[in-house]
Each structure stands twice: as C-alpha cells, then as structure tokens.
Amino acid sequence: MELINLIFFPPTSMASSLSQTVLFSILLFLSLHQACAKRTHLNFYFHVTDVQANATDYGTIIVMDQALREGLDENSTLIGRVQGIQAAVGKDGSLETMFNFLFLNKQYNGSTLAIYGRAPLETTIERPVIGGTGKFRLSHGYSLAKPVILSATRLVYELDVYVWPLELKDD
Predict the structure, then answer these.
(1) Cβ atoms within 10 A of the Cβ of 110, count?
(2) CA distance 162 to 43
(3) Per-residue confidence at 12, pLDDT binned at 50, 70, 90?
(4) What are the residues facing 117 on neighbouring strands?
C-alpha cells in the first residue's frame, strides 16, 4: 500500500497534493458516470447500392451518401443516411472510413453519430463512435458492422451501435 501511495501521491508541496486530489476526484467522477450512464443500442442496416468495382484499389478515395434502413430489404423504412469518406489504405484492400450517420427518423431526427476507423473487408468491422450531435451530443461508444450481402452490385451491413450519450436537459 505504501508503494501505491508513493506512486500516486509522492511527497510534495501542499499545492501539488491538492492538484492530485482534484485530479483523482475528476477521474473518480468520470468513472462513476461511465458506470451509471445509460447505454443506447441501435440496430439498423447500411445499404450501399452504387458499388464501384475499383473501390478497394489502393489509394482510391470515395465520398458517399448511402441509406440507413430499418431492415435488410432495400425497401424497408429509411431511418437515415451515411455520409462520409472512405479511402483504400491497405494493400490488402482494407479501408479507412470517416462517416456521419445522419438520422431522419422521428426519434432521433437531425441527430448524428460520428464513426471513424479501419474497415477490413469481408469480416465484422469494429469502429469507435467518436462523438455525435442532437440526441447523441458528446456520445462515445463503438459500432459493429457485419456483412450480410456482398455482391458486385450491392453491399448491405447489419450495424449494432452502442453509445453512451451525455444526458442533457432541454434548453
């Protein structure tokens, strides 16, 4: 126990000790907030209908605006759009993605989630949620995208997104 105290609270001046106490209190608060925060789980389908044959050629950059739908069927309810950029960065065909999920459905209308990360092909893709707006303001979390349909003309991924939004009172 004495070693832990020396590592985290080495003997120093009173001001430094106060700073460490404040820092420890902030870290404790953030840990408790994470443990008590309400998690939101979203499930939807990312439909890519204008697949480009050379989209995974090393160095290719694509700007996209694709559908987020409630179901696997391409005529299922539109709940939002995926807008962003992807670039083929790996010689193995993996992509670097920078997406905003723009929600158009009644519950989250106008809210967004920002997702960034590497997307290896033909496998479940895990990427971090790095923020959001509206109902998802200051969110953090992760997304899992599982390929469901992979063809030369159509791609569909099932997405499970887990976010911890900051609960704010309406202004």
Answers:
(1) 10
(2) 9
(3) low
(4) 97
CA dist 121 and 133 (Å) reads 29
Q: How far apart are the first and last CA of the chain?
A: 47
DSSP letter (8 states) at residue 144: E
Q: Which fold has domain 40-164?
A: AOC barrel-like (2.40.480)
Q: Which residues partner with 114 through β-bridges? A: 100, 131
What does each C-alpha distance from 129 to 24, 108, 116, 118, 169 come to in angstroms? 26, 16, 7, 12, 22
Q: How far apart (Å, rounded) are the C-alpha atoms in residues 5 and 20?
A: 12
User: What's the rounded Cα separation, in Å, for the pair 4 and 171?
Assistant: 44
Highest mean pLDDT among 43-57, 72-86, 156-170: 72-86
Q: Is 95 exposed, middle or buried (0-12, 13-18, 19+ CB in 10 A)?
A: buried
Q: pLDDT tens digit string along 94-124?
A: 899 999 999 999 999 999 999 999 998 778 9
Residue 138 has pLDDT above 60, yes or no: yes
- In this prediction, residue 39 carries a pLDDT of 87
The residue ranges of every structural domain in the chain are 2-36, 40-164
